[in-house]
Protein 1
Amino acid sequence: MIYHHIAINVPLAGGLLTYSHPEALPAGTRVAVPFTNKTVAGIVWQSGVTPTVDTRKILPVHTVFAHEAPLPESWRRLLEFTARYYHYPLGQAVAAALPQGLKEIRPAAQPEPPQFYTLNATGRQQTAPPAHHRKKQALWQALQSGSPAMPALKQLHPQAPKLVETWAAQGWISRHSAAAPVLQPSEHHLNPDQQAAAAAVSAASGSFRPFLLYGITGSGKTEVYFDVMAKVLAAGQQVLFLLPEINLTPQLLKRVQARFADVPTAVLHSQTAAGARTQDYLRARLGQAKLIIGTRLAVFTPLPDLGLIVVDEEHDTSFKQENELRYHARDLAVWRAQQAACPIILGSATPSLESWHKAHSGAYMLLELSRRAHTAAQLPQVQILDIRRLKLDNGFSTPALKLLHDNFRQGGLSLVYLNRRGFAPALFCSDCGHTFGCPRCSAKMVLHQRARQLRCHHCDYRQAIPRQCPDCGNQDLTAVGHGTQRVEETLRQALPQARIERVDRDSTANKNDWANLYRRISEHSIDILVGTQMLAKGHDFARLNLVLVLNADGSLYSADFRAPERLFAELMQVSGRAGRAESAGRVLIQTQLPDHPVFAAVQMQDYRRFADEALAERRLFAMPPYGFQAAIRADAPDIGTALQFLHDIKAEVAEQLPDTVSQMGPAPMLMVRLAERERAQLFLESPDRRALHQAVAQWLRLLQHHSHHKVRWSVDIDPQEV
Ligand code: ADP
Ligand code: ZN
């Protein structure tokens, strides 16, 4: 008998269980094994181990999925690192990293070897489908200009398999099993900044080198990625392209697919259907897919020929997973690049302060694109409007409404943008700017219109809505934090002729919704867009020339030390939407905190200024990136139980805590209640990463030891939430 360590999806600290099998199984092989009274899927981690338990108690492996290619060693090392760094059981980390099809106890269908299709000589003599059959024509053109594989064709037309079959039956199409990628040349001649950036990355090929590509929206970062990607793909290597959850829009995909139509591509994100995701995962693992585009979960794709990683919008918060395995895909991507000895590009107009800091300490190489690439495009004109003494009509100031009105008259496209991140409806005095804090804790009170109450979401203190401002006696107290719906109503009344379109999660749930939206915008059938951060990112609305930001400061009232960083990124991003094309854009930001440094930096469109100030402050308080953090969270039906649980362990840990680590809290979380449970957390902080991880390990031992039936707990390394 040969004994094997096998990773299965159970919350065991070590993460591996021992099973027997008559023969040695290659590491990475998928198996089914008995566990308690079930059969579960697992991955062989090590073969030929010496058992530490009585061998008579070791159960045999149930089934070996021998025809599946084992998960490669580089992938297993990645998962080991992930489990260790995030203090998460290995078996559960493995489960989080696998697509559904590889977690089941039946064999996974192996992908067909790729087939490539081209329009042959006979096909080229036929007339192309007419222009009004857009998708069909796109398909035809792709077959004419290269030799794409089916997944790429399906992206162009959902009926591609059928159409290609029909055309093949006519004798217009030839098939082949290997395609030397024929890359479309760039539409543009890269400008000197872009050339320098692309050359620096290409020169690093074959070695680990992280680059921070910093350039305002529209400065041509995507073209730099494409240039470097083309070289890596032409050399037959794989490229991993990570982008934020919200950014996976048809627009960017279309652009990538247009440029890399011949490259077998896998698209991996949370909305991909389970079956397709498994297939794409396996195609990547087998080296059949060369370009892997996806959101954070794609960072776990096994890639045998990895030659380049791109993380677009690297500052985006959606790269951090906020439940179960709380990993940061950008950070893991850097680890992977090091492992694979390949360059990685982190791109952003507003880099995370962590990456900016690394670019200045020399850990990353800074590449800068200093101008907008499109020569005609100009920087937007940003105006900060102090609304403290202005009368507001449902959140709109008179100057703002006038701008909207004028722009509508002139046939422009406007965007009314609501910043709602970390933001609950609140009451404030429109005269002196007074806001209502809880008398019992530091939190701001949340306005509950229907109950006519202000409530504290930390301690549950409640009071009736006050009639006047306690500071200045003004009786005109204003509600901030309007939902998009009310904003839309107000606009409809103020501009009855304008065609207004609300864009939110619901209105863009469907895959085709964005495409429809773009079409209607280009057809001039929308005058005003209303929406939240969904609209800020990655969208290029050619006609947009006015952006109005309502209640910009909501999150600045919060206790989150990252709030200014996020607000800055969001405002830069949304103002970057204005004037991307020929017309210079205008941006008007309404705020009650006009003196906050964030706004001065946005007005000057000056990330450096913002980053340097923010980093100086972080340094002063030894906050990240100058210190490291871990959060220990506990939730229970009531906050008292959760707090007590953490207090008890804190006291025990304190006895052996290294000097360099401090324990802050426990305190209730900003959003205390979630899904009928109340949440508390404690922060471990240290300038010494290793000492911090030792303290976390100590916490973990005690957390496991102190288990309490009412309390659930979790550990969050490098937490992003407060
Ligand atoms: P970013 O990714 O930084 O937002 P993009 O790469 O999307 O910027 O470029 C912005 C716009 O400028 C796009 O329309 C793109 O086609 C165009 N563009 C990029 N590089 C060039 C160039 N060298 N010459 C002309 N236009 C360019
Ligand atoms: Zn309170």
Note: The first helix runs from residue 73 to 85.
Protein 2
Amino acid sequence: QSQELLLSIESTCDETAAAVIERSGRVLGQCIATQETLHEQFNGVVPEIAARAHLERILPVIDTAMKQAGVMGRDLTAVAVADRPGLAGSLLVGVVAAKTLALAWNRPLISLNHLHAHLYACQLIDGAPEDIYPSVGLIVSGGHTSLYLCHTAIELEYLGGTIDDAAGEAFDKVAAMLSLPFPGGVEVAKLAAEGNEKAYSFPRSMIHDEADDFSFSGLKTAVRYAIAGPGRQDFSSLQIPEQVKRDVCASFEAAVVDVLVSKSRRAIKRHRDRSGAGRLIVGGGVAANQRLRRDLQAAADEDGFELLIAPPHLCTDNAVMGAIAWKKLEAGLFANLDLDITPGLQR
Ligand code: KG4
Ligand code: ZN
């Protein structure tokens, strides 16, 4: 008897993705179509372009994942889709596709919170413990920087988050100031590895604040001043020496990582006693950052908490983290065919 399977669909931002996943978590087929080249010239994701690109790609992407897995609709137990949060037009394409297939194949529909899925990616590490809850969750992505108390995979309590820019957004904006390709996180990290992190002393906003909130816009402004001085808006004509770029990236990355590490550390100290959450789980695109991974591990070793970071290839948006749908299925949490999108910021 073969394993039960589900189809997971992801289209919240600018990646169109689908995966066929066994109940055991094993992935039989998957496909991701990235839109990076479409948004590059705008230094950010353009919602209308993203929605149109999803529309063109969604069926071929699903088809590819299903063919790779060698399955048909009738072989599936359920169809799952991320319905929140994200760009409205992007979400709509995935949700309409999922509803249509669920109806056509007569299979139950499961709606997923994209942020919960990012953290669930921690459970998809080889050898991860069966039960990783309760734990403190850190989500660091292009749109979010938040701390949660995770009671279970699908019951998360918001502790705090950014009051302005997300960490990934700050990486992308700094990359744009330095004329690096979009999305900038990876490019900034590459240059940072060759730079001097002490060259600039950038602010670590709210690092001593007791609240679990973050702020990265002051850091972004400090980088802007360091590169061009106050007042300058147009960076395109600016000639920045390569060593300056490397040093700015290293100093910027160190500032972001310092804040993320020390706030997570404080949150876990507090909740280890209060809620029995002795483990930190980390997901989202910025969790692929090597410096962040290294410094978090050092903090975990020093303070004696357990650390699980999503594997690098499951940090940025993908449909495999939609394996969380099995948890919703087991809890009997199904969506109806009148499922609508919920674009807004989710706590
Ligand atoms: O999770 P994700 O793919 O999309 C959202 O749900 O937002 O995160 C994308 C973000 C981008 O801002 C990207 O620049 C950042 O993650 N990112 C990184 C790295 N890889 C991706 N930031 C820093 N270092 C990296 N290695
Ligand atoms: Zn994401």
Note: Strands lie at 5-10, 15-22, 27-34, 78-84, 109-113, 135-140, 145-152, 155-161, 279-283, 306-309.
